[in-house]
Amino acid sequence: MELKLAVIPGDGIGPDIIKEAEKVLHRTAELFDHSITFEHYLAGGAAIDKTGEPLPKRTLEGCQRSDSVLLGAVGGPAWDDLGGDMRPEAALLGLRAGLGLYANLRPAILYPQLADACPLKQTKVPGGLDIMVVRELTGGIYFGEKGRRDDGAFDTLFYSRKEVERIARVAFDIAKKRGKVVTSVDKANVLESSRFWRETVKQVAADYPEIELNHMYVDNAAMQLVWNPKQFDVILTGNMFGDILSDEASMITGSIGMLPSASLRTDSFGMYEPIHGSAPDIAGKDMANPIATVLSVAMMLRYSFGLTDEADVIEKAVASVLDGPWRTADIMSEGMEPVGTKQMGDLISQHISRG
Fold first, then answer.
1. pLDDT bracket for residue 139 (50, 70, 90)
2. Number of folded domains in the chain?
3. List 19, 23, 142, 230, catalytic entry
4. Is 217 a catalytic residue?
5. Which is catalytic among the residues 219, 281, 309, 323?
6. Domain containing 95: what range?
7. Is 187 a catalytic residue?
8. Which runs of E-coded beta strand occur in 196-354?
9. Is 155 part of the annotated catalytic residue set?
10. For the domain that residue 83 is a member of, what is the CATH number?
11. Residue 243 a catalytic site member
């Protein structure tokens, strides 16, 4: 198979971790006889510095021509004083809207090898943790009408039936391949938009009789993620609630340096990125953990290209490395051997095999 990928290294540690992900992709492609072409583009702070805008037209058009997008990280203190439309993060909203990426998949996985990194008591997460947060990405309050009047400001939360139905189907389809449980999170006791959300999710659930559907208010869901996270399989929720809950779920695993994400549209196209930020304080110092980006590559192979065996090989390679003594600084524990970004990438590449 020939894969044409648009790559956006971005800011801070973005270029560091992207190099290692490309290394792993090359090794995997070689093993399975695939051809990969990388086209690199600017977005975020790096694009602002060079072009004066966070998402140049060339970048968006290049991504639209590609088979999928691999993104590092954007943002940093250097651009904090810019207006909202000119901040690096505006590139993310522009990419999501311009590429039609409406479904955000955020797995929160606690590897048994890293159990000591979990901030919860081990009785809460025996044997590890595996939650998938499915977040609607192009609707809701982030994209609704907003403005200021008199001495106040407003943001509008709106969802159409189509928007709720399509993200619900993504969650149910994923649950079919996992634990067959969907927890839909809303605030239906207060918000009319949440009552509409809940009604629509129930209608979609009728097409999936094999899936158990639960409903939970967002404040309770935030509490339950800490109290009993293993009760969750797939969490379905809107844009803002998903933004918050996926970050909470990720921190239960101990390090955001371990977690990938996928943003998908109605076809197989997707944008894949680690959930962590740009960490400019360690950029270029060979200190960043590339595992989240490497696992994002595995998600890309699975969800955009249907290359399940290739994705499995990468995920098994990561697990094999974690079985050993090697740890980057963010997942370091007593008795382990410290490694940098490049060495971790090398180790994962060396463990990639069909055996």
1. very high
2. 2
3. 142
4. no
5. 219
6. 1-101+280-355
7. yes
8. 212-217, 234-237, 260-264, 270-274, 326-327, 337-338
9. no
10. 3.40.718.10
11. yes
